[in-house]
Amino acid sequence: MAMSELEATASLRIMILVAKADGTLHEDERASLSFALQGIPLPKGASLQNLLDEESNLDAQLKLITSSEGQETCYTSAYAIANADGDCTPEEKKILEHIKTTYKLSEEKTTLVGRLFAEAKDTVLPSNIKAINDPKKRAEEIKEDTLKYAVMCSVLGAFPIPGLAILTDLAAVGLQVKLVRDIGQYFGHQIDKPAAKSLLLGVGIGTGARIAVTNLCKFVPMFGSAVGAAASFAATYAVGKMAVAYFENGCKADMETLKKAFRDAEKEGKEQYAKNKDVIATKQKEQQKKIEQLASDRKAGKITEAEYEKKIAELV
Known about the structure:
Elements: H1 5-19, H2 27-37, H3 48-53, H4 58-63, H5 68-82, H6 90-102, H7 107-121, H8 135-157, H9 165-186, H10 193-203, H11 208-217, H12 224-248, H13 255-275, H14 277-300, H15 305-314
């Protein structure tokens, strides 16, 4: 069951209230939310600036979300925002607890969300790529890998099953981290997960805001799975381009240069998504049942986060 437009708008406002939990929306939080919401069709009459600046009442917004799917998605998205940097403040915890109590969410559901996020941060997908000295051959391999990863992340970005969707969003971030590490090794650079993830965070990928918005999009008719699919493809495609710019420059490119490279490449990525829709549709048809089963096994604790991400990576 999809969320209504009213529920989606309320969820967006609640996410922003979480970001403002300490009394203000800091510049980095505003930038992160702005970036995450770019390209998302906002409700009629709403603007990004208004959503970020307005003063909303938490209880009033919570009352607008009446479906069980909407309530669970709202909590998950709020949790992603609150734990974006690994440090959930007392004010943020208070809001999460209030959402949990208001919606009478079970301890099992809320604990599961926390466990999945915590374990995803500690997972390191192996990356064993041999360096290629020939620039032309290296570029061809990287282009091929980037497209494959973008297609898989697009499939994951369109996964609209309540309770499991957040797993695929976290898995997409894991694949993007692996893509950065793979590209580094093509250039002869060994880069660990923290370093790769810091590059993604620097350009706005892998943030709690991005994950929260992507998760929300999947359940809303005005957004739809297609929006999540397109956003995930474009972002992953841009990650590949940004990583090339970084490693070609001997790992010395400044963050502003990388941000520009990412933004420019994301526009190109949206065009490439349109050109590869048939490939994505075929991949989705081939892997949908496997992804659903892996997500169900992960949620049930039958496989670990490391095993889950490894198996997802094998589907690429």
